[in-house]
Amino acid sequence: MGAAIGLPAARTAAHIRAVTVRVTAIVAVLATGAAARARVVARRIGQMPPPPGPFRPGFWRSPIRGPWLTSVFGLVLLIGIPLLFVTGALSYAAYNPGLDPVNDQTPDKGVLGFYLFDWPTRPYWLYRLTQGVHVTLGVVLVPVLLGKLWSVIPKLFEWLPARSLAHALERLSLLMLVGGAIFQFVTGILNIQIYYVFPGSFYTLHFYGAWVFIAAFVLHVCLRFGRMTRALRSRRLAAELRTDLAHTRSEPPDPDHLVPTGPAAPTMTRRGALGLVGAGSMLLLMVTAGQSIGGWLRNTALLAPHNRDPGDGPNGFQINKTAASVGVTPALIGPNWRLEIHGHGPPLTFTREQLLVMRQHAADLPIACVEGWSTGNQHWSGLRLADLAAMSGLPRAGSVLVESVQSSGPFSTVALRGNQVADPRSLLALHVNGADLSVDHGFPARIIVPANPGVNNTKWVRRLTFRA
To answer: Between β-strands 461-467 and 339-343, what pairing exists: parallel, antiparallel or unpaired?
Structure first.
């Protein structure tokens, strides 16, 4: 009986195996045929002449284009871009994005926020330095980036676009590198000029764009570092700087086909190309760096949107946003204005006159903004945030939520960390340089914290909520 039942089962299993073998064979035949047809198509495409214009090898004829010049530009970027990335990452950390949802401009950053830490308050000029370097360096590197793109532009029009899987991956990394560089530099410069045409938050776009770009940059360096070093050794910089136009010659043919097959007569030496890029960078340095350095150099910062002081007197220093531009009206900051302090216990309410009779403290601190501009040290006076935290019943507050009378817009509410509250130079400022705050500088009261991004030094404060 058992044998009779087992026989059909065995026949069924054998049948399934046979069908499986047949199907596998058919799939293998089809796959082999498809692969063969794909190879034939690829071969035919490869035999086709490239499209007219920049895809033709003879289109690019400059005799100074080649591995050496490309590598010189690449070496400058190899030094500058990591510094640019690090200072940008530090700027992101300074905004306290991991502290509170009101500060976090990229809540979905996930593992990309692995490096975030408590931003320090010492030295007080730290953010002024890091952001000034970030913005100034980003502007200064623009001519170098353009020179590098010019030197490798034949690679962007290489034919065939993809000759193999490995070649396709290399082309994809090149697309990410070039696209990422253009995106980061363009969005950064637009932000410096306060020209917001982004399809979303600048902080989010610039943050994710930076990670895509740096990943492509690291991959590119790994793939090309050996070729770059060999190219740099192939010619002496001093010799190239002495070579005149009459003696300018093409480099030997290279595997990347940067050297033209039919070079034209030179119209510029490599010395001239390096000088043009260097002069462009120096010019941009002169018309940008003054906004961060300050002093008389501020008058040279012609490209900076905040290169001139708004008037004279104690309040005659830069501002980012005026009261009128964000809807802060005289009624909101007039005699009926009150400061609310919340913490452990019943809330406290003060008029400005009551705040003025309390013990005042002073600190000499600059204001530094994400656009790269900064002021010199201003003499601020007011109440220590640490003293206000003690009044709220939380002398060792872990954070404070600062709310402005500004009803909407980014950074109208900001969270500060416990180390910022505890610093004796962190103030609820009522005066600057011996005078009342002007309306545009935050009257009747504003926050000033050492090494803090300008937008986190909230103006027109109406409520402080200290938290454990």
So the answer is: parallel
Sign of CA dihedral 376, 377, 378, 383: positive
In angstroms, the CA 171 to CA 165 distance is 10
Question: Are 370 and 455 in contact, with CB atoms under 8 Å apart?
Answer: yes
| Beta-sheet strands, E only, within 366-445 | 378-384, 399-404, 413-417, 427-432, 435-436
Q: What pTM value is reported for the model? A: 0.86
What does the DSSP assignment read for 101-167? TTT-S-TT-GGGGTT-------STTHHHHHHHHHHHHHHHTHHHHHHHHHHHHHHHT-SSS-SSHHH
Q: What's the pLDDT tens digit per position in 332-384?
A: 999 999 999 999 989 999 999 999 999 999 999 999 999 999 999 999 999 99
342: which DSSP letter?
E
Residues 114-135: tens digit of each pLDDT: 888 889 999 999 999 999 999 9
Sorting pLDDT into bands at 50, 70 and 90, what band is 163?
confident
Give the three-state DSSP class for 201.
Answer: coil
Distances (CA, A) of 386 to 119, 261, 396, 428: 17, 71, 8, 10
Which of 381, 386, 376 minimizes the C-alpha distance to 363?
381
Please tell me the distance from the alpha carbon of residue 172 to that of residue 166, in angstroms, as a whole number: 10
Task: Identify the DSSP state of 329.
Answer: -
Rounded Cα gap, residues 48 and 56, in angstroms: 12
- The 10 Å Cβ neighbour count of residue 340 is 14
- CA–CA dist 271, 244 (Å, integer): 8
